[in-house]
Amino acid sequence: xxxxxxxxxxxxxxxxxxxxxxxxxxxxxxxxxxxxxxxxxxxxxxxxxxxxxxxxxxxxxxxxxxxxxxxxxxxxxxxxxxxxxxxxxxxxxxxxxxxxxxxxxxxxxxxxxxxxxxxxxxxxxxxxxxxxxxxxxxxxxxxxxxxxxxxxxxxxxxxxxxxxxxxxxxxxxxxxxxx
Length: 179
Description:
Layout: H1 14-31, H2 36-62, E1 70-73, H3 79-85, E2 88-90, H4 103-116, E3 120-124, H5 130-139, E4 142-147, H6 162-177
Parallel strand pairs: 1-2, 1-3, 3-4
């Protein structure tokens, strides 16, 4: 099992999201100088929304007990999220939820969940959840629901925008980890 380092999926930190927004604004101005006033007028509004959301995220996750800040998810996309908000994110190394895991890999994960008292396992919106279902069944760990990492939901889904993705993910995490 590997504990992912925050080396990818930088948008899973809202502080990094603010950097993305300013870089996107600058890129748009470079290719559309006529739109400069529009981009400059709207960027601060969105940055303020991100700052407020980050405050809400930190408060929600800070309320979790220290012994309930560890999850298993189907891949290491949450390294930045874990580092930014104080969660330990564990992803099964070399195990793909898109295909059958070996019995050895599943046993290794199950032993770790039991040894470390990991309270919840999560699936991502882009993966087949059969492995996590099996692991949860054999360990008693709660399946915490679906997390959005690499893709947003359709417009009528729970995570149609960047900030909605955070709200959904934090809601799923806090619901599973506080029960």
